[in-house]
Protein backbone atom coordinates (compact mmCIF):
# COMPACT_ATOMS: atom_id res chain seq x y z
CA UNK A 1 0.00 0.00 0.00
CA UNK A 2 1.35 3.44 -0.88
CA UNK A 3 2.50 5.61 1.99
CA UNK A 4 -0.12 8.29 1.30
CA UNK A 5 -2.93 5.73 1.62
CA UNK A 6 -1.85 4.39 5.01
CA UNK A 7 -4.07 5.31 7.95
CA UNK A 8 -2.09 7.42 10.45
CA UNK A 9 -1.86 6.27 14.06
CA UNK A 10 -1.29 8.78 16.84
CA UNK A 11 -0.11 7.36 20.16
CA UNK A 12 -1.51 9.30 23.12
CA UNK A 13 0.48 8.60 26.25
CA UNK A 14 1.18 10.15 29.63
CA UNK A 15 1.44 8.96 33.20
CA UNK A 16 -1.55 8.00 35.34
CA UNK A 17 -3.97 10.85 35.87
CA UNK A 18 -2.47 13.22 33.33
CA UNK A 19 -5.89 13.66 31.72
CA UNK A 20 -5.76 11.55 28.56
CA UNK A 21 -9.41 10.52 28.81
CA UNK A 22 -10.53 14.12 29.38
CA UNK A 23 -8.52 15.22 26.36
CA UNK A 24 -10.09 12.51 24.18
CA UNK A 25 -13.58 13.39 25.41
CA UNK A 26 -13.04 16.94 24.22
CA UNK A 27 -11.27 16.25 20.94
CA UNK A 28 -13.64 13.54 19.73
CA UNK A 29 -16.47 16.09 19.64
CA UNK A 30 -14.65 18.13 16.98
CA UNK A 31 -15.75 17.69 13.35
CA UNK A 32 -12.13 17.17 12.33
CA UNK A 33 -12.04 14.02 14.45
CA UNK A 34 -14.87 12.33 12.60
CA UNK A 35 -14.09 8.81 11.41
CA UNK A 36 -11.50 8.31 14.14
CA UNK A 37 -10.99 4.83 15.55
CA UNK A 38 -9.91 4.76 19.19
CA UNK A 39 -7.93 1.97 20.83
CA UNK A 40 -7.81 2.17 24.61
CA UNK A 41 -5.48 0.14 26.80
CA UNK A 42 -6.10 -0.32 30.53
CA UNK A 43 -3.65 -1.21 33.30
CA UNK A 44 -3.99 -4.80 34.50
CA UNK A 45 -7.35 -6.53 34.27
CA UNK A 46 -9.33 -3.44 35.27
CA UNK A 47 -11.23 -1.65 32.51
CA UNK A 48 -13.11 1.57 33.08
CA UNK A 49 -12.11 4.22 30.54
CA UNK A 50 -14.50 2.82 27.94
CA UNK A 51 -17.30 4.09 30.19
CA UNK A 52 -15.83 7.60 30.24
CA UNK A 53 -14.59 8.09 26.66
CA UNK A 54 -17.25 9.30 24.25
CA UNK A 55 -15.78 7.56 21.23
CA UNK A 56 -17.45 6.66 17.97
CA UNK A 57 -19.91 3.80 18.21
CA UNK A 58 -18.17 0.43 17.82
CA UNK A 59 -14.81 2.12 17.33
CA UNK A 60 -13.60 2.09 20.95
CA UNK A 61 -11.67 -1.11 21.60
CA UNK A 62 -10.76 -1.82 25.24
CA UNK A 63 -7.64 -3.97 25.56
CA UNK A 64 -7.87 -5.55 29.03
CA UNK A 65 -5.24 -8.30 29.02
CA UNK A 66 -2.42 -6.21 30.49
CA UNK A 67 0.00 -3.38 29.79
CA UNK A 68 0.84 -2.78 26.15
CA UNK A 69 4.55 -2.86 26.87
CA UNK A 70 4.32 -6.32 28.38
CA UNK A 71 1.79 -9.05 27.71
CA UNK A 72 -0.65 -7.60 25.14
CA UNK A 73 1.59 -6.39 22.35
CA UNK A 74 0.18 -9.25 20.31
CA UNK A 75 -3.32 -8.05 21.11
CA UNK A 76 -2.45 -4.61 19.75
CA UNK A 77 -1.48 -6.14 16.42
CA UNK A 78 -4.63 -8.27 16.47
CA UNK A 79 -6.82 -5.24 17.21
CA UNK A 80 -5.30 -3.34 14.31
CA UNK A 81 -5.76 -6.38 12.06
CA UNK A 82 -9.46 -6.51 12.97
CA UNK A 83 -9.75 -2.80 12.26
CA UNK A 84 -8.09 -3.31 8.87
CA UNK A 85 -10.65 -6.00 8.06
CA UNK A 86 -13.49 -3.63 8.89
CA UNK A 87 -11.89 -0.95 6.72
CA UNK A 88 -11.65 -3.42 3.83
CA UNK A 89 -15.34 -4.22 4.33
CA UNK A 90 -16.27 -0.55 3.95
CA UNK A 91 -15.73 0.99 7.41
CA UNK A 92 -14.49 4.55 6.86
CA UNK A 93 -11.52 5.28 9.12
CA UNK A 94 -9.36 8.34 8.56
CA UNK A 95 -7.09 7.97 11.60
CA UNK A 96 -6.44 5.91 14.72
CA UNK A 97 -5.72 7.19 18.21
CA UNK A 98 -4.07 4.69 20.54
CA UNK A 99 -4.40 5.74 24.19
CA UNK A 100 -1.92 3.84 26.32
CA UNK A 101 -2.22 2.99 29.96
CA UNK A 102 -0.45 5.50 32.18
CA UNK A 103 2.15 2.95 33.26
CA UNK A 104 3.09 1.91 29.74
CA UNK A 105 6.64 2.23 28.55
CA UNK A 106 5.86 3.57 25.06
CA UNK A 107 9.03 2.25 23.43
CA UNK A 108 7.84 -1.35 22.82
CA UNK A 109 4.55 0.05 21.52
CA UNK A 110 6.39 2.17 18.98
CA UNK A 111 8.58 -0.76 18.08
CA UNK A 112 5.49 -2.84 17.32
CA UNK A 113 4.01 -0.09 15.14
CA UNK A 114 7.31 0.48 13.34
CA UNK A 115 8.33 -3.14 12.83
CA UNK A 116 5.22 -5.32 12.49
CA UNK A 117 4.82 -6.08 8.75
CA UNK A 118 1.07 -6.72 8.97
CA UNK A 119 0.49 -3.42 10.73
CA UNK A 120 2.65 -1.51 8.24
CA UNK A 121 0.52 -2.71 5.33
CA UNK A 122 -2.38 -0.55 6.53
CA UNK A 123 -1.15 1.94 9.14
CA UNK A 124 1.65 4.45 9.66
CA UNK A 125 2.80 5.95 12.94
CA UNK A 126 2.04 9.66 12.61
CA UNK A 127 3.28 10.86 15.97
CA UNK A 128 3.41 10.53 19.73
CA UNK A 129 1.50 12.96 21.93
CA UNK A 130 2.49 12.91 25.60
CA UNK A 131 0.36 14.56 28.26
CA UNK A 132 2.14 15.69 31.44
CA UNK A 133 0.35 16.57 34.68
CA UNK A 134 1.52 20.01 35.84
CA UNK A 135 0.60 19.30 39.47
CA UNK A 136 2.45 15.98 39.76
CA UNK A 137 4.76 16.04 36.75
CA UNK A 138 8.09 16.75 38.43
CA UNK A 139 7.55 14.17 41.15
CA UNK A 140 6.40 11.60 38.60
CA UNK A 141 9.42 12.18 36.38
CA UNK A 142 11.71 11.77 39.39
CA UNK A 143 10.15 8.47 40.42
CA UNK A 144 8.85 6.77 37.28
CA UNK A 145 11.20 5.80 34.42
CA UNK A 146 8.16 5.13 32.20
CA UNK A 147 7.15 8.79 32.52
CA UNK A 148 10.61 9.90 31.38
CA UNK A 149 10.40 7.67 28.32
CA UNK A 150 6.90 8.95 27.57
CA UNK A 151 8.30 12.48 27.43
CA UNK A 152 11.45 11.51 25.57
CA UNK A 153 9.68 9.87 22.61
CA UNK A 154 7.06 12.61 22.19
CA UNK A 155 6.88 14.83 19.16
CA UNK A 156 4.14 16.84 20.88
CA UNK A 157 4.01 17.63 24.59
CA UNK A 158 0.83 18.85 26.30
CA UNK A 159 0.82 20.03 29.94
CA UNK A 160 -2.49 19.49 31.70
CA UNK A 161 -3.85 21.25 34.81
CA UNK A 162 -1.71 24.41 34.47
CA UNK A 163 -4.17 26.24 36.73
CA UNK A 164 -3.18 24.04 39.68
CA UNK A 165 0.41 25.33 39.92
CA UNK A 166 2.08 28.72 40.22
CA UNK A 167 4.47 30.14 37.67
CA UNK A 168 7.57 29.01 39.55
CA UNK A 169 6.41 25.39 39.60
CA UNK A 170 5.38 25.55 35.96
CA UNK A 171 8.74 26.92 34.86
CA UNK A 172 10.54 24.20 36.81
CA UNK A 173 8.47 21.54 35.06
CA UNK A 174 9.00 23.10 31.62
CA UNK A 175 12.73 23.21 32.24
CA UNK A 176 12.72 19.51 33.14
CA UNK A 177 10.71 18.67 30.01
CA UNK A 178 13.11 20.65 27.82
CA UNK A 179 15.99 18.78 29.41
CA UNK A 180 14.44 15.43 28.46
CA UNK A 181 13.13 16.43 25.03
CA UNK A 182 14.74 19.73 24.00
CA UNK A 183 13.22 19.84 20.53
CA UNK A 184 9.60 20.17 21.68
CA UNK A 185 7.71 23.22 22.96
CA UNK A 186 5.16 22.10 25.61
CA UNK A 187 1.62 23.42 25.19
CA UNK A 188 -0.59 24.06 28.27
CA UNK A 189 -4.00 22.37 28.14
CA UNK A 190 -6.74 23.25 30.62
CA UNK A 191 -9.73 20.91 31.08
CA UNK A 192 -8.85 19.05 27.90
CA UNK A 193 -9.40 22.18 25.77
CA UNK A 194 -6.88 21.40 23.03
CA UNK A 195 -7.32 21.93 19.33
CA UNK A 196 -7.74 18.83 17.12
CA UNK A 197 -4.35 19.61 15.63
CA UNK A 198 -2.90 18.34 18.91
CA UNK A 199 -3.62 14.80 17.71
CA UNK A 200 -3.75 15.17 13.95
CA UNK A 201 -0.09 15.33 13.06
CA UNK A 202 0.72 13.49 9.84
CA UNK A 203 4.52 13.37 10.05
CA UNK A 204 5.95 9.87 10.07
CA UNK A 205 7.70 9.05 13.34
CA UNK A 206 11.48 8.92 12.86
CA UNK A 207 13.61 7.50 15.69
CA UNK A 208 16.55 9.48 14.33
CA UNK A 209 14.81 12.66 15.46
CA UNK A 210 14.43 11.51 19.05
CA UNK A 211 18.01 11.34 20.31
CA UNK A 212 20.50 8.60 21.04
CA UNK A 213 18.73 7.37 24.20
CA UNK A 214 15.47 6.68 22.41
CA UNK A 215 17.26 4.91 19.56
CA UNK A 216 18.87 2.68 22.18
CA UNK A 217 15.51 1.92 23.77
CA UNK A 218 14.05 1.03 20.38
CA UNK A 219 16.97 -1.29 19.68
CA UNK A 220 16.46 -2.93 23.07
CA UNK A 221 12.73 -3.33 22.42
CA UNK A 222 13.44 -4.88 19.02
CA UNK A 223 15.68 -7.48 20.65
CA UNK A 224 13.03 -8.23 23.26
CA UNK A 225 10.35 -8.54 20.59
CA UNK A 226 12.27 -11.27 18.75
CA UNK A 227 14.37 -13.00 21.35
CA UNK A 228 13.08 -12.48 24.85
CA UNK A 229 9.81 -13.07 26.66
CA UNK A 230 8.63 -10.56 29.25
CA UNK A 231 7.84 -12.24 32.54
CA UNK A 232 6.04 -9.27 34.10
CA UNK A 233 2.97 -9.83 36.19
CA UNK A 234 0.32 -8.14 34.07
CA UNK A 235 -0.72 -6.05 37.09
CA UNK A 236 2.78 -4.84 37.99
CA UNK A 237 5.62 -2.68 36.75
CA UNK A 238 7.50 -3.00 40.04
CA UNK A 239 6.93 -4.97 43.20
CA UNK A 240 4.98 -2.20 44.90
CA UNK A 241 2.44 -1.27 42.20
CA UNK A 242 -0.89 -3.05 41.85
CA UNK A 243 -4.38 -2.38 40.53
CA UNK A 244 -7.82 -3.54 41.57
CA UNK A 245 -11.42 -2.39 41.51
CA UNK A 246 -14.18 -2.36 44.10
CA UNK A 247 -17.87 -2.63 43.17
CA UNK A 248 -20.95 -1.80 45.22
CA UNK A 249 -24.44 -2.89 44.14
CA UNK A 250 -26.28 -0.55 46.52
CA UNK A 251 -26.01 3.27 46.44
CA UNK A 252 -23.15 4.71 48.47
CA UNK A 253 -23.42 7.54 51.01
CA UNK A 254 -21.42 10.47 49.63
CA UNK A 255 -20.58 11.86 53.05
CA UNK A 256 -18.93 8.66 54.27
CA UNK A 257 -17.12 8.07 50.98
CA UNK A 258 -15.87 11.66 50.69
CA UNK A 259 -14.62 11.68 54.29
CA UNK A 260 -12.72 8.44 53.73
CA UNK A 261 -11.18 9.69 50.49
CA UNK A 262 -10.03 12.87 52.23
CA UNK A 263 -8.39 10.90 55.04
CA UNK A 264 -6.76 8.43 52.64
CA UNK A 265 -5.39 11.29 50.54
CA UNK A 266 -4.07 13.13 53.58
CA UNK A 267 -2.32 10.08 55.04
CA UNK A 268 -1.31 8.03 51.98
CA UNK A 269 -1.58 10.40 49.04
CA UNK A 270 1.85 9.52 47.64
CA UNK A 271 0.65 5.93 47.24
CA UNK A 272 -2.43 6.85 45.20
CA UNK A 273 -1.05 6.66 41.68
CA UNK A 274 -4.58 6.76 40.31
CA UNK A 275 -8.11 6.54 41.66
CA UNK A 276 -11.10 6.80 39.35
CA UNK A 277 -14.66 5.71 39.65
CA UNK A 278 -18.26 5.90 38.57
CA UNK A 279 -20.52 6.19 41.60
CA UNK A 280 -24.13 5.40 42.31
CA UNK A 281 -24.83 7.75 45.20
CA UNK A 282 -27.74 7.86 47.59
CA UNK A 283 -30.28 10.47 46.50
CA UNK A 284 -28.76 10.86 43.02
CA UNK A 285 -30.30 9.36 39.87
CA UNK A 286 -27.32 10.09 37.61
CA UNK A 287 -23.81 8.65 37.92
CA UNK A 288 -20.99 10.70 39.37
CA UNK A 289 -17.42 10.36 38.09
CA UNK A 290 -14.46 10.88 40.44
CA UNK A 291 -10.77 11.21 39.53
CA UNK A 292 -7.76 11.52 41.81
CA UNK A 293 -3.99 11.39 41.44
CA UNK A 294 -1.85 11.34 44.57
CA UNK A 295 -2.85 14.46 46.53
CA UNK A 296 -4.84 16.08 43.71
CA UNK A 297 -8.56 15.43 43.25
CA UNK A 298 -10.76 16.82 40.53
CA UNK A 299 -14.23 18.07 41.35
CA UNK A 300 -16.80 15.25 41.00
CA UNK A 301 -18.58 15.32 37.64
CA UNK A 302 -22.27 14.54 37.25
CA UNK A 303 -22.60 12.46 34.08
CA UNK A 304 -25.56 12.65 31.70
CA UNK A 305 -26.68 9.09 32.41
CA UNK A 306 -25.60 5.52 32.98
CA UNK A 307 -23.72 3.94 30.05
CA UNK A 308 -25.88 1.67 27.90
CA UNK A 309 -25.62 -1.95 28.91
CA UNK A 310 -23.84 -1.20 32.18
CA UNK A 311 -25.51 -2.06 35.51
CA UNK A 312 -26.26 0.78 37.86
CA UNK A 313 -23.63 0.29 40.53
CA UNK A 314 -20.56 1.99 41.94
CA UNK A 315 -17.18 0.95 40.65
CA UNK A 316 -13.89 2.40 41.87
CA UNK A 317 -10.52 1.58 40.33
CA UNK A 318 -7.33 1.93 42.39
CA UNK A 319 -3.74 1.89 41.11
CA UNK A 320 -1.52 1.99 44.18
CA UNK A 321 2.13 1.97 45.13
CA UNK A 322 3.21 0.35 48.41
CA UNK A 323 -0.30 0.35 49.84
CA UNK A 324 -2.00 -3.00 50.53
CA UNK A 325 -5.44 -3.58 49.10
CA UNK A 326 -6.77 -4.54 52.55
CA UNK A 327 -5.98 -1.08 53.93
CA UNK A 328 -8.11 0.52 51.23
CA UNK A 329 -10.90 -2.04 51.21
CA UNK A 330 -11.31 -2.30 54.99
CA UNK A 331 -11.10 1.45 55.49
CA UNK A 332 -13.73 2.19 52.87
CA UNK A 333 -16.06 -0.49 54.25
CA UNK A 334 -15.75 0.95 57.76
CA UNK A 335 -16.58 4.50 56.69
CA UNK A 336 -19.53 3.40 54.56
CA UNK A 337 -20.90 1.30 57.41
CA UNK A 338 -20.46 4.13 59.91
CA UNK A 339 -22.23 6.56 57.59
CA UNK A 340 -25.11 4.13 57.09
CA UNK A 341 -25.72 3.88 60.84
CA UNK A 342 -25.24 7.57 61.58
TrEMBL record:
Reaction(s) the record says it catalyses: GTP + H2O = GDP + phosphate + H(+)
Classification via InterPro entries: CobW-likC_sf, CobW-like_C, CobW/HypB/UreG_nucleotide-bd, P-loop_NTPase, Zinc-reg_GTPase_activator
Keyword Methyltransferase found: no
Pfam families per UniProt: cobW, CobW_C
Keywords (A to Z) from UniProt: Chaperone, Hydrolase, Nucleotide-binding
Signal peptide: none
Domain CobW C-terminal: 241-336
The organism's place on the tree of life at top rank: Bacteria
Protein family membership: Belongs to the SIMIBI class G3E GTPase family. ZNG1 subfamily.
Protein name: GTP-binding protein
Origin species: Roseomonas haemaphysalidis
Amino acid sequence: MATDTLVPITVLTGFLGAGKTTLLNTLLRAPEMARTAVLINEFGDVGLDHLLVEALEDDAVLLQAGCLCCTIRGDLSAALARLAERMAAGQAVDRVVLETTGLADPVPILQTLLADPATQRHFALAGVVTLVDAANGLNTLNRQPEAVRQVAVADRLLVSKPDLVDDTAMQALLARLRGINPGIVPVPVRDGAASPEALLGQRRFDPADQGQAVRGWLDEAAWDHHGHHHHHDRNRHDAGIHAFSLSFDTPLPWQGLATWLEMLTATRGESLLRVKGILDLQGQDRPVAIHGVQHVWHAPVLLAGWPDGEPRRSRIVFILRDLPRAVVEDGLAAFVAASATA
